[in-house]
Structure formats: structure tokens, C-alpha cells
Amino acid sequence: MPPTLAAATHTAALARLGHALSDPTRAGVLLALREAPAYPSHLADALGVSRQVMSNQLACLRGCGLVEAIPDGRRTWYRLADSHLAPALDELMRVVLYVEPDCCAGENCTCA
To answer: Distance between CA atoms of 49 and 51, rounded to whole angstroms?
Structure first.
């Protein structure tokens, strides 16, 4: 049976999420934003990347529809674009830890 139009649309959306998660900086941004909105400079500092790299990665995540920019005077902060994303990322981390339980073992593990 051929795939339906809905299945093709769902496939494209899932592929966009996969693309977003394929880069460690983008994945780090999503994991950080699941906890709280943040300014790009704070995200860049927390993830150890330049502000230009952060700007590029946030543009990609906006293009994927996963984050949104919120103007705040002369600055802009970012948050996850949908309230379903934080619990979905939490669940995805549980799956990752099930598949690869030693991925971040130890005191500094923040992904569980």
C-alpha cells in the first residue's frame, strides 16, 4: 500500500527533527531550552561556542520550526516553539539512556 500524504508530511517533519538533533550544538540548545528560555549569548557561553556559531544554529532551529525568537527590547531570547517539545526531548533522552546506558554516567550527567 503506498504511503499517504499524511505519512509523507510526518516523515518530513521527523526528518527536520533528526536534522536538528544531528548537530551537537543544536542538540545542546534544544536540551538547554527544554529547561528555560535563554538569550543567545548565554547559550553560546554555556555550550562553549562563538556567538556567530550560536546565531547560525538558532537560525537553523528556527527554520526547522523548533525554536522561536522573542524580542525583548534590543535583545532577543529564545524558547522551544511548542510545549510538546520539552517532554518529547525528555522521553527521547530516556530512550537514548536505555539504548546506551553509559552515554553520560557519573556525577555530571544532566540528561536523565
So the answer is: 7
Pairwise CA distance, residues 106 & 92, whole Å: 19
Does the pTM exceed 0.85? no
CA distance 90 to 2: 33
Helix boundaries (H) for the chain: 5-21, 24-33, 40-47, 51-63, 85-99
User: Which CATH class, in words, describes the domain spanning 5-99?
Assistant: mainly alpha
**Tens digits of residue pLDDT in 66-105:** 999 999 999 999 999 999 999 999 999 888 877 777 766 5
CA atoms of 62 and 79, how far apart (whole Å)? 10
